[in-house]
Amino acid sequence: MVFVTLSYLATGSFLQVIGDVQGMDKGTASRVVSKVIKSLAVHFKELIKMPENGEERTAIRQEFFNIARFPRCIGALDCTHIKIKSPGGADPENYRNRKGFFSYNVQVICDATLKIQNIVCRWPGASNDANIFANSRVRALFETGHFGDSLLVADSGYGIKRYLITPLSRPETQSQHLFNESQIRTRNPVERCFGVWKRRFPILALGIRVAKEKIEPVVVATAALHNLAIIMKDPQPAINNEIEAAVEFINNFDIVPVPVGGQDASNNRTRLLLINYFQDLL
Asked: Where are the domains of the chain?
């Protein structure tokens, strides 16, 4: 059963094709895949989780610090599009993204080793990244101080907050340029995570062809398996030109910056302190 499911997730082939290869009809293949994916999705919290204690946070902070000396970071935040077939129903256009194909816009927070720590897969492709974060449980946890003074890094598509650090749009001083360079390098793992995740499970880039209510378990299951592969030190998948082209296309979305006037200036204090920190490194 596991082999059939992995074949489906790793190739993006139709269940009919997978069934033919494994000597079973499409209905049987569908039931097998659904059962394994549901089991993985139910137990995903064992593999996909934010650092919950000081020891875990300290270790993750150090891994991020080792990249470009950016302090206190426990996660890189971004969204990525997962291709789906037209969901049908009354609102299919809500799932059509800016590139014109149907998708889910999936929010991920990853660590410096590319493991996925948090995932939100319930928003249609037309949804705005910042709005997804604003309505997420993990944002509420940061707002209430659940993670102490730890930080997230994100691109300029998000608004600056005391715990969510974005780059400066127009750096001027040497310390500002140093801050931006470090911030960009520190958030790079989430971009790499998306590439490795989709190469490992091409179904995410080639398209998930199941009913809408089954999409979230498929995505979460691949995220859990992606983390397991990293833990087990599984080599990154070899480059396949067709899959690579699909991954590049689906990942290459222009950032829509949050208007400066739409950000709360009081949230900028942490970023100013970080810029001063980089000034001291000069």
From this structure: 1-42, 49-281
